[in-house]
Amino acid sequence: MNDLPANLKYATSHEWAKVEDGNIVRVGITDFAQEELGDLVFIELPELGRKVKAKEQCAVVESVKTASDLFSPVSGEVVAVNEAVVDEPEQVNDDAYGTWLFCIKADNPAELAALMNADAYQLMIVQ
């Protein structure tokens, strides 16, 4: 858990965001989140083309213990979803930072500044 990728940004709601070319933001859940949830059994992803606002609930992950809402780290349009994780949600448990859930074309990339870097996220989760 203390090997947080430094190239990612982190939300207080435990999503990670990776900025890619063309204002595309790839989103997944953190290793801390998947550890807390336990074995994932179901993932509901947002619809392609859906417009979302930053901090808007847009997806759901369910584990053997509980269900948890996922929130968009930025405002924009959902331009890709990882269908493979719908059939195999355990991929997130196996590799939280290598398994993305959806991508958003950010309307305002400056919103990423509101997210935490790896050091700030690490401080938040150890408290």
What do these coordinates show?
- The chain is α+β, with helices and mostly antiparallel strands and 127 residues long.
- It has a single domain (9-108), classed as RNA polymerase II/Efflux pump adaptor protein, barrel-sandwich hybrid domain (OB fold (Dihydrolipoamide Acetyltransferase, E2P), Beta Barrel).
- It has 4 helices and 9 strands; from the N terminus they run E-E-E-H-E-E-E-E-E-H-H-E-H.
- The chain has helices spanning 31-37, 83-87, 90-94, 118-126; strands at 9-10, 15-20, 24-29, 40-44, 51-52, 57-63, 67-71, 76-81, 102-106.
- The strands form 2 sheets. Strands 1-2-3-9-8-5 form a 6-stranded antiparallel beta sheet. Strands 4-6-7 form a 3-stranded antiparallel beta sheet.
- Strand 1 and strand 2 (15-20) form a beta hairpin.
- It is globular and about 35 Å long.
- 37% of the residues are buried.
Q: In the CATH classification, which architecture applies?
A: Beta Barrel
Could you tell me the number of beta strands? 9
- CATH fold topology: OB fold (Dihydrolipoamide Acetyltransferase, E2P)
Q: Could you estimate the helical fraction of the residues in percent?
A: 10-25%
Name the poorly predicted regions: none
Q: How much is the average pLDDT? A: 95
Q: What share of the residues does DSSP label as strand, in percent?
A: 25-35%
**What spatial form do the alpha-carbon principal axes imply?**
globular
End-to-end distance = 14 Å
Number of domains: 1
Q: Taking strands numbered 1, 2, ... along the chain, how are they ordered across the largest sheet?
A: 1-2-3-9-8-5
Q: Biggest sheet, open or closed, and with what strands and sense?
A: 6 strands, antiparallel
Number of helices: 4
Please give the CATH class. Mainly Beta
SSE ordering: EEEHEEEEEHHEH
Gyration radius (Cα, Å) is 13 Å
> Could you name the CATH homologous superfamily?
RNA polymerase II/Efflux pump adaptor protein, barrel-sandwich hybrid domain
Secondary structure category: alpha+beta
